[in-house]
Amino acid sequence: MMSKILRMTVFLAVACSLAFTGGCRNKNPNDVGLYGSDNLYGDPLLGDVPLADVDGLPADGDRSVVQPVYFAYDSSTVNSEEAGKVEEVANLLNKNKWQGVIVEGHTDERGSREYNLALGERRSLAVRDYLISLGVDPSKIQTKSYGEEMPDNMGHDESAWRKNRRAVFAMY
Amino acid sequence: MIRRFFVGSAMMAAASSLAQRAVVEREGSGTISINLAGYRTGGDAASRGFLSVLKADLNRSGYFRVTSSGATVNVVGQAQAGSQLKADVQVYKAATRQRMLGKSYNASAGDYRTLAHRVADEILYAVTGKKGMASGKIAMVGTRTRYKELYICDMDGHNIRQITQDKSIVVAPRWTPDSKQITYTSYKYRNSPCIFLTGRGRPLSKDPGLNAMGSISPDGKTMALILSKDGNPELYTKSLRTGITRKLSRTRRGNEASPCWSPDGNHIAYVSDSSGRPHIYIISKDGGTPKRISSSGTENISPDWGKNGYITWCSRVGGKYRIVVANPSTRTSRVLETDWADYEDPRWAPDGRHIICSRTSGYRSAIYLLDTLKDSPVALVSGSGDWYSPAVSP
What we know:
The structure holds 2 protein chains of 2 kinds. Chain A has 4 helices and 4 strands; from the N terminus they run H-E-H-E-H-E-H-E. Chain A has helices spanning 2-25, 80-94, 113-133, 158-164, and strands spanning 69-70, 101-106, 141-147, 166-171. In chain A, helix 2 (80-94) crosses helix 3. Chain A starts with a helix and ends with a strand. Chain B contains 5 helices and 29 strands. In chain B, the strands form 7 sheets. In chain B, strands 1, 2, 3, 4, 5 and 6 form a 6-stranded mixed sheet that branches. A 4-stranded antiparallel sheet of chain B has the order 9-8-7-29, with no helix packed on it. In chain B, strands 13-14-15-16 form a 4-stranded antiparallel sheet, with no helix packed on it. In chain B, a hairpin with a 2-residue loop joins strand 26 (354-361) and strand 27.
């Protein structure tokens, strides 16, 4: 209970500060878009923590523990409906049920493969930043982008694309 | 001087300073008729193959039209092969019978295609003074093994060879400036995206997180790349001698992707979505304030900076991916006329006139050749899975 209240407080603080920075950015019409004021979760301005060395750490994990987080088109924002999955992972890691997690970022097939590689990493990092804000030790989180190279659904319509814009948790 | 004569008045202007502008503005481009009817071959497959590849290369160059009578330029001589292919080639201006090229070539008979490509480029140079593309090589990703492996082929789409056998995923191939090796991103180490160089086992970059899209500078000393080791995908350079990295972009809210070098090696063009949508930017190799060069289109991605000074990239226009050619100093640009398919990942051919790209229709991708002066897409590599992400040897 206590931790839930604490978490909500962190959220509100984050939401307020981002609403403020978002508002500033919106003065320039060019800045409205992907990373505008709606970016409440996993904003890299919160984390921006260098990635820990991965040598010697597992390179794979169990993907069946927590369901993937899904994203909107060309967005790396963890939206509120998806945030619970990240909180579940944070909970497991904070209670030391698992040693660590590889957050695997994916995109749909639209756009260039190269740009999508960066976008997939942004999704992994947004989830990572959110995990860090929930108190997870950054050295327990690896990120990996597959871009559009490993779709979950091979279809070519929005119902397939929605399944493919995801961050998968590989727990180890 | 003599070779300039044949280019004709419209092309003559293009041959000098206006050549650069022609790419963007599409000035008239006549073709020179060239006659190979008097060229003799033996009964063997190699010499006949040599001649047919040579004719196809001359036609594909965009500067010639191969005819069998009444041409401006005549090519005569003979080719014959046993285990060795020997080709004598003489090129004459028809009107004055002035010789523009006279040379004997030798190659192993199995290499008749390579020899034909070389001769085609030498004929083009002798007649127009221009660098050809026939001897170039294309690197690309192919899916025919169900994995995504690196392949190379000739500029006519023939001679396809599989380079990697990693049973992994290859992304973003780029040639080294000496055209001898290829950098690429692969998941073969730890199942993580790292940058590799053909002919070298250890990765060129394997920091935590994303290591991708490595592109080596014209002097061969520095690699531009995308890393996320500091907590966000950013554009970096890495010294290939010391391994020291340097962060060039600082966009904590944005992605960077697809760096490529200016011909003089002083600038890097790349993609950033720091404005909210992906656009093309130019930054000094030493960092500083980037300059945005694309303005229209909902996505501007995958730039390639040609030795001709022009940058080509892929732009989403009216729901389709199309090819843009732009002059970064005047900021003028043109969208190439293409059909309803998606055209992506444009890369300059060594002649500075043609562009190699991928064309996707019905969710199948193939490698295509575009002529920036004529807008006529030609399929080079298609079938047996998908082919995409081309890179052309400089």
